[in-house]
Amino acid sequence: MSPSPEHAELMASYQKLVAEVNKKTALVRVASLKGPQAMRAAMATAEKAERRRDVLASKLAALGVVLGD
Q1: Burial category of 11 from C-beta neighbours within 10 Å (exposed 0-12, middle 13-18, buried 19 and up)
Q2: What does 3-69 look like in DSSP terms, one character per residue?
Q3: Considering only CA atoms, which of 20, 11, 9 is closest in space to residue 50?
Q4: DSSP code of 2?
Q5: Taking the CB of residue 61, how many other CB atoms lie within 10 A of it?
């Protein structure tokens, strides 16, 4: 059974957000070498990306889509 177009679009968005979270988490490590202020700013952006990912994951779960993380 193939997913509906809406589910496929949400899944694609979710995968993009997962990649974004991974990238921003890696940037926190790099920013930590530049100082505490840069690290805090990078952590804030990474946390926002994580929240967006979690919100989308909850929407997918409400639709009955199982995520294989």
Answers
A1: middle
A2: PPHHHHHHHHHHHHHHHHHHHHHHHHHHHHTT-HHHHHHHHHHHHHHHHHHHHHHHHHHHTTPPP--
A3: 20
A4: P
A5: 11
How much of the chain, in percent, has pLDDT values that exceed 90?
Answer: 61
User: Tokens for 35?
Assistant: 């100082």
30-62 pLDDT per residue, tens: 999 999 999 999 999 999 999 999 999 998 888
Task: Judge if pTM exceeds 0.90.
Answer: no
**Residue 38, amino acid:** A
pLDDT in tens, 9-31: 888 898 999 999 999 999 999 99
Using the structure block, give the residue that is written with the tokens 């990912």. Answer: 53
